[in-house]
Records
---
Amino acid sequence: MVRVTSLINCKAYIKFKPVRTASAITVIDGRIHYVGDSEKATRIAKLLGGEVVDLGGSVVMPGFIDAHMHLDSLGINLNSLDLRGTKSIAEIKEKLKEFSVRTTTKWIRGRGWDQELFAEGRWINRWDIDEVVPDRPVLLVRVCGHVGVLNSKALELVKKAGVQLKQPYFDVDGEGELTGIVRESGLGEVLKLIKYGEEELLKYTEDAVVHALKHGVTTVGLTGCSHEVLSALQILNSLSKLKIRARAYLNHELLPYLRKLGIRCGFGSSRLKVMGIKVFADGSLGARTALLSRPYADDPSTKGVAVISKEELARIVKEASEAGLQLAVHAIGDEALDMVLRAYGEVLSHVRALRHRVEHTSVIRPEQIKKLSEIGAAVALQPHFVITDWWVIERVGAERAAWVYPFKSIINSGVMVGFSTDAPVEPINPWETVYAAATRGAYEGVNLYEYSRDEVLDVADILHYYTYGSAQLLHSEDEVGTLEAGKYADLIVVDEDPLEVDLKELKSIKVLATMVGGEFTYLSRELSIN
Ligand SMILES: [Zn+2]
């Protein structure tokens, strides 16, 4: 039997570039069949014995597509201590003490602190944590995800596991004592020690899916996916619990296995696909590990770090390309981007066809934008960084301000662009990202705004790149990204018209319902469907 649903009496944004609207949509067996007026949509539903959902004038639009995020980390985050916005080390201690009583996991995890906000004016260290939790291992990851702080118990376990506790990955103080701060690959080693069982991982992944759907995200790009997470996604899918569409970029260590199996970009189903490989070229601006072409303005002793050699990056890019796998390379600093451009330059014929991606491009020189456009590479941007990285001008200096998050310049140059949150690094709520792209921190007093107000984007453009644009990055624009007939009915109902509200109100827009493949996967209590 066919499943027929007509959504009527709504203002449906079918697409955003150019803007096209309709007042009704008919969905047959998960796909959009008709876009037009309520009368005809009602007739089709009645004729085929389907249901008619009167939306009472609500706004409908394509579901958001978050091209770069981390489902597993988001799930772990939802189940760990949230330290975002904490204003002092004292406040962290208080929260941690309270949380340690509630949580039963072996390791106590927290995430989201930012030393720039601390009233104490210094970094947090292991002795701070020891004061409240001396007997269980604690890891609190910085907001950027590239740096963390461990307590003494955790350092002890890490040492016991054979990890070398050495600089530059484990900080020491003036007396040569470990401070508990751990960076980049050091943090990677620590995270490897914290193992999750299959059950736990399934729960975390499912929690993250439910959370994302609630915020109107209908497809996600998992940029950095382990074989355990891929397995969890498959299990959820087989249980009909993968209510979101997932596109996976596997950790580059898995490249040899993908090659051996002959798995190419697009392997899987419309629900879950393997796209390619995720690789890191550098770190983050917050931790001054993003690789810049010139030293940091606020620390001339460093220009950041390459976390992979040029040769190794070029080899991975070549092997993945020849295997028909798409690349997603993390490059935040402009010198890291130079490395990626060089590596992509050696596999030119594959770049456009496979839509090789660069993740973040936070600091990007004008000629690099031109080069990306020429070679046909794609970029995954995270506009919310503009607000979180409010200190960025201090890091790079005023002369380089024009190179920082130049979203409009990138779009105008014709580069393929998709939007994302890097959740849990930034909030998964897409409206926070839409707001950030439309305002660039103007209302938060973000310094960068003063230097780059020309880079603010129109809301319709933002919504286009956050739906269709992201779909393109995931090779999925024929399936999703707009509400045109033939595509999957992946859509959301929202409480305000994003093209009509005041810019300040954008981040308060609420998702009332989310539909994936014709099935309501989230329904708020506020929406009375009759
Ligand atoms: Zn990421």
---
Amino acid sequence: MRTPPTRSLLFVSFCCLSLLILGGCQSAEENSYATATTSVTPPGTQALTEAPRPQAIADMMKARGEQDQALPTLRIISPANKAVVSGSTVNLKLELGGDLKGYLAHKDPSTGKGNHIHVILDNQPYEAYYELNQPFEIRNLTEGKHTLRVFPSRPWHESYKNDGAFQVVEFTVKGVGDASKPTITRDGQTMASPAAPAASVSATPAREGKDFAPSNAGAFDPVAPLLSYSRPKGEYKGEDADPIMVDFWLSNAKLRSDGGEYRVRYTVDGSEARFIDTWKPIWLGGWINGKHTVKVELVDKDGKLVDNGGYNSTTREINVVR
Ligand SMILES: [Cu+2]
């Protein structure tokens, strides 16, 4: 059978078109590959470098007298270790002691700053607790096991690292159910609100505290090596964003340069990991605007993660806004 000439022409045209398309695709792939290899260092790439303690903080330290040589200790009065509590709110009560050298937790109303305690529920970001003469309400607790970690901090969020500064308790919450919700009558009127009685809300100032996100304790061993992530956290603006402090609390472990074998590994935005071998804060400069992830981990001498209920590898998102 003979193919009519017009059909042959169409067929040849189709082949040419196919080759063109294929060729086009091929070169597009090569282009994208080339783009990928040449864009390893696009403009605005972050190159973080360790920076000295900022002068503004050095000045604050001078103005504080001996406070930075203080050896503050904390005791968790409530909840008691291994306590079983009912309801979704727990009152945290602390006793501050030790060689304080003028250290006291208090927020200066004019600056909104001051010494404070870092309070960590499970492995959530810490919350600041300023006025220890009244309890800190840990609100919105879910049923089950929880851990609370506390340690004293300076106005710029650098923790005190002396013996006795860090405390941890485990407790269990039961009977959350409806106890956290107001009792509603059949016609929809609120009869009582156990969490915040309407009559006392206006009479008493709001307690320090926090509605925490739902979480539970990890399978945690309080006498095993433990890294408690503290900083960075939240949003950093202006000069607070450069440099930014990385700070943590270390229990039951010594780092390599402190006579031990452990290392703290940190990773920013999933880039190459770096190590901290002395237990002290570091300041990192060179952040670009936007959201960043900071991962801080406790590893052994072989670089293997030392697990402790999931607490020894923590990733937080921070936001840099200049
Ligand atoms: Cu703080």
